[in-house]
Specification:
The structure is a single chain. The chain is built from 10 helices and 7 strands. Strands 3-2-4-5-6-1-7 form a 7-stranded antiparallel beta sheet, with helices on both faces. The model has no long low-confidence stretch (mean pLDDT about 85).
Length: about 200
C-alpha cells in the first residue's frame, strides 16, 4: 500500500482520478489475483519496491552541526566520482554579503528544476554565504529524469545518486548510493563529527 502513497506524492490531486478511482473500481470488480496485476497496483508495487530498495542500498548519514566545512569535506572526498555527477542546487537560504548573491538565491528558489552548478561553483557559492540556513543539493548521473523542487523527498532521494541537505541551521543529511564513496565519506566525517542514528 505504500506504493499508493508514493503515487499520491508524485501526482498530487491528479492521483484521485489517475490511480485511486481506477484502483477502487478494479478492487470491486476483480478477484484478488486479478486486482493485484491491474496496472494501478503494478505501478504501486514497482514504486514501493524501488523506494525500499533505494533505502536499503543507500546509506544516509545525519550530523548535527552548523559547520559548513562539512559540505566541503563531503565534496572533496572523491572528486573523480563527484565530477561524474550532474549537480543541481534545488534550494538555498541564508544571509548574503552582496546583492548579487541575494539575486542568485532568488533565481535558485524560483526555478522549477533548481540551478545546475559545477563543484567549483558550489565551493565559490559557500564562500559568499556568511550564514547558511537551509540547502538542498543533488547529484545525478542520469540527466534523463531530473528531479524538481516540487518532488517529494521520496522521489528526490530515489532519483539522485547524492543528496546533501542542510536543515534549519542545524542538521546535515547526506544520502549516497555509491557504496565505496559512502564508506569513505562516513569514515572521514566520523573523525570530526558525531554521526547521529536515523530515527
Amino acid at each position: 500500500e505504500y506504493g499508493h502513497y508514493l503515487q499520491s506524492q508524485r501526482f498530487g490531486p491528479f492521483y484521485l482520478f489517475a490511480f485511486a478511482i481506477p484502483s477502487v473500481i478494479s478492487a470491486a470488480t476483480k478477484t484478488y489475483a486479478g486486482h493485484n496485476i491491474y496496472w494501478t497496483e503494478k505501478d504501486a508495487h514497482r514504486r514501493s519496491y524501488e523506494y525500499f530498495t533505494f533505502l536499503m542500498k543507500n546509506s544516509i548519514i545525519r550530523i548535527k552541526t552548523r559547520d559548513r566545512g562539512l559540505l566541503k569535506l563531503v565534496l572533496s572526498a572523491n572528486e573523480e566520482y563527484l565530477k561524474l555527477l550532474h549537480w543541481k542546487l534545488l534550494f538555498i537560504d541564508g544571509t548574503y554579503d552582496n546583492e548579487q548573491t541575494m539575486l542568485f538565491q532568488e533565481k535558485v528558489n524560483s526555478s522549477e528544476y533548481g540551478l545546475v552548478l559545477s563543484l567549483t561553483e558550489i565551493d565559490a557559492l559557500l564562500n559568499c554565504v556568511p550564514d547558511l540556513w537551509d540547502l538542498l543539493l543533488v547529484g545525478q548521473q542520469d540527466k534523463r529524469e531530473p528531479v524538481q523542487k516540487k518532488d517529494s523527498d521520496d522521489i528526490i532521494f530515489n532519483s539522485s545518486d547524492v543528496v546533501i541537505e542542510y536543515f534549519d541551521c542545524s542538521y546535515w543529511t547526506i544520502a549516497i548510493s555509491n557504496e565505496r564513496f559512502v564508506s569513505s565519506v562516513k569514515s572521514n566525517l566520523e573523525k570530526m563529527y558525531e554521526v547521529l542514528p536515523l530515527n
